[in-house]
Inorganic pyrophosphatase 3
Amino acid sequence: MCKSPDFSLQEGKKKIIYLGDGSGDYCPSLKLKEVDFVMPRKNFPLFDLICKDPLVIKADIHEWTDGEELEHILLNLINTIATEENAQFISAADCKLQTMSAHEALPQALPVRQ
């Protein structure tokens, strides 16, 4: 049994960019359409399953290896979709991606009066 979101419930004409790395992401990837995109993490279970039989995946496949490559590919896909749909151009500055080191101090919590 496939436990995945029902993409057919999406309202309007939308394209889906599905990111995944685990074997549990394979079944949802099979439900994507030709206009959609799947982004498996290279050398992880989803990527390996797709490589065994890539023709069963209807969506356009874009693999990635690390966060920097993921960001680059994802922003390119978003810009391509926006351009195709004559939408306003989206630049990298419009997407707020942040990384936080485990060594960085978190902001101090504000005291709450009761």
Notes: Residues 72 and 92 are 9 Å apart (CA to CA).
